[in-house]
Amino acid sequence: MACACLIMGQAAAESDLATFAKDWEAKIAKAHTSEKTPRGKLRREAILRNDYERELSKRRERMIDSGKLTTPELEKLREERRALEQQLKDLDGRIVEASAKAPEIVELDAVRQANAERVTAIRDKLSPPAQRAQSQDGETKTE
Questions:
Q1: 3-state class of 140 per DSSP?
Q2: Is the dihedral of CA 53, 59, 64, 70 positive or negative?
Q3: DSSP 8-state assignment for residue 100
Q4: Residue bearing the bigger pLDDT, 64 or 32
Q5: What are the residue ranges of helices labelled H in the chain?
Q6: How far apart are CA 49 and CA 51, in angstroms?
Q7: Which residues contact 134 (CB under 8 A, 6 or more apart)?
Q8: pLDDT single digits (tens) 43-86
């Protein structure tokens, strides 16, 4: 079943490409017949064939970048990429863990802890814990 889908998908893509090529060849043929001199015919065809080549190159890049193409080799490479991406994620996590042990971070964390303790002390002076509990219960506080 999967093979049939792949074959049908490739047939549709080939049909699309065949239509694209047929349209361009018709455009070139029409321009060729509209020119009067042999040199003009050749110049016009060369210009159109260069345009055709650019369009084919763009189409090729879009097809490759789409991620819709599939072959056993492509699937193997995509699986390899997923494994490498997971390895990079794991490595990033280990880097973060190792960075947390750096002297600068240890010092920064100590300063943060001291600041947090000071904030708690100030909060306790401004509003003692018992008074905060009453406020949270919905009672009005009296000063």
A1: coil
A2: negative
A3: T
A4: 64
A5: 2-34, 38-66, 72-99, 103-126, 129-136
A6: 5
A7: 141
A8: 999 999 999 999 999 999 999 999 999 999 999 999 999 999 99
